[in-house]
Amino acid sequence: MNYIRFPKNFGGLEDDISNYDTSKAVILPIPYEKTTTYIKGTAKGPEAILEASRNMELYDEELDKNICDVGICTLNELNIEEKPELAVNIVYDNVKKIINVKKFLIVIGGEHSITPGCVKAFAESYDDFSVLQLDAHADLREEYDGTKFSHACAMKRCLDICKNVIQVGVRSLDYKEAVFAKENKQEIFWAKDILNNDLWFNDAISKLSKNVYITLDLDVFDPLVMPSVGTPEPGGLGYYQALKFLKKVFEERSVVGFDVVELCPNENNVHSDFTAAKVLYKMIGYKFDKEAEK
Ligand SMILES: [Mn+2]
Fold first, then answer.
1. Domains in the chain, start-ordered, CATH in brackets?
2. pLDDT in tens, 30-68
3. Could you tell me the distance, in angstroms and rounded to a whole number, from the CA of residue 129 to the centre of ligand 1?
4. What does the H/E/C string look like for 210-248?
């Protein structure tokens, strides 16, 4: 497997803690962008996350450890030129390969349309499986801009594969999506109901199956925290609230993989890139902190 080596990899890690053979976590960058509709630039997301990560402290004060000691390998970018309907299968094939060798996979985008390919691969490999989506947008459109595989349809396509999709932080959708959500009793934890309180944590987690795939669309965060996204929406989650929730999900469920999508780097707002890298790093920490307790 070809991977990015020191000093260009995630975290700028030396080869002994970032080689493919011994790393427990594997990052797959997919700079895919074919269907974005507002601000363009998510194709540069993975590179910006990697660059920011190399400027990050590797010691985590919350977990009191160097998270990277589990081994974090950064694979070469998966470049896909095909249309979204074909891209799904290419993502699926590549994700499947990593699942089969039992590494913990993190996909970084790129736009949200890469998620259904990931979900297809994970849903096939795990029984009792749910998807947890953190996102400002419901992404429940049946079709958008002439394709069913647009970023705006990402979760509708995931629902075709897995019936149990829990949505957190949503504050933007169209009328048809709202009708669909109501008719299908879609579990949505609206941003307006969950900001500034943690009362919903247990309820949301109780709806998740044993095995969980997390798709983290960075626009779930408030634009003050995360301005560099393709479709910013006011009124999103704060940094500590999101981390507290994610940590609890990792503690109470078996998170089998996750993606971090929709970073749209802007050189005037590099703190977004840094925040994305740090959240991703902490999520790896939460995963293996739990493993260590077993
Ligand atoms: Mn979104």
1. 3-293 (3.40.800.10)
2. 999 998 777 889 999 999 999 999 999 999 999 999 999
3. 22
4. CEEEEEEEHHHECCCCCCCECCCCCCCECHHHHHHHHHH
For residue 6, how far is its CA from the centre of ligand 1 (angstroms)?
A: 32
Torsion of CA 80, 83, 86, 92, to 10 degrees: 40
pLDDT value of residue 186: 98
Distance 148 CA to ligand 1 centre (A): 16
The Å distance, Cα 265 to ligand 1 centre, comes to 15
Judged on CB neighbours under 10 Å (0-12, 13-18, 19+), 214 is: buried
Give the Å distance between the CA of 187 and the centre of ligand 1: 17
Query: Global pTM?
Result: 0.97
Quote the ligand 1 centre to 55 CA distance (angstroms): 26
CA 202 to ligand 1 center in whole angstroms: 23
111 alpha carbon – ligand 1 mean position (Å): 9
> Distance between CA 258 and CA 106 in Å, rounded?
5
Ligand 1 midpoint to CA 260 (Å): 11
Alpha-carbon gap, residue 21 to 24, rounded angstroms: 9
Q: How sure is the predictor about 294, in pLDDT bands with cuts at 50, 70 and 90?
A: low
pLDDT per position as a tens digit, 158-180? 999 999 999 999 999 999 999 99
